[in-house]
Design brief:
Structural class: alpha+beta
Radius of gyration: 17 Å
Distance between the termini: 31 Å
Order of helices and strands: HHEEEEEHHEEEEEEEEEE
Bound molecules: 2-amino-4-trifluoromethylsulfanyl-butyric acid, cobalt (II) ion
CATH topology: Creatine Amidinohydrolase
Amino acid sequence: MIKIHEKEEFEKMRKAGKLAATLLYELGKQTKPGITTLDLDKFAQEFIEKHNTKSACFGYTGGGKTPFPGYICTCVNHVICHAFGTNQVLNEGDIISIDVTLIVDGYHGDTCATFAVGKISNEAQKLIDATKHAMEVGIMAAQPGNHFGDIGYSIEQLMKNKYNNQYSIVEDYCGHGIGTTFHAPPQIEHTGFAGTSEEIKPGMFFTVEPMINAGTHETRLLKDGWTVITKDYRLSAQFEHTIGITENGPEIFTQL
Ligand code: MF3
Ligand code: CO
Ligand code: CO
């Protein structure tokens, strides 16, 4: 069952989304050589406490895991998703995906972007641009009357036609329904077939959050139980927005 939300709930999602987007923007400005991923996590913790809000990640046990120890996810270079802050220092040329999920008045705003640390290679910048583009076409496919399969299909077509299949799309981790719960049905796959899966309807809230890899799409979970990396250690990027479906199309909640 995919929940259909009321008008008032759109307003709550706008608030949560905007605050998450603000924190992500502030974190993006901190991603300089010399800073550690734990510094970023502490910055997030302070922001969250100052705004009297909550991190959905901190203490999260999704799927029966050990509680997540961080306030945000900070994923450097070949790390795909779900890494927590450590004493790892950011170096010039690194890329870092930062994923923020805040709970404001019971509603979740979930957003991620990949940032450059200092000057990065053309190759890394191209991967970042392609990943942002993938999220954008995925969101544009989220029109009422379309189907969830259209989202993944549009991303796959983009990767084929515009980027000549030079990148791969992660399949082991997906977008998700969201609202008063962090991860609700359905799973939003970033690959797929046009017209398949359930119909997208006004009032649905979900994320589009493609992870795009420079090499293989295959993933490996580290022994810490959370950190997910690319099997070939090549770069991975991610962008994510939380959106709500209106009669006129998708509304992006997680923007400034
Ligand atoms: N924000 C991630 C998502 O997009 C989930 C992070 S869960 C955590 O769904 F526990 F790793 F933080
Ligand atoms: Co998400
Ligand atoms: Co997220």
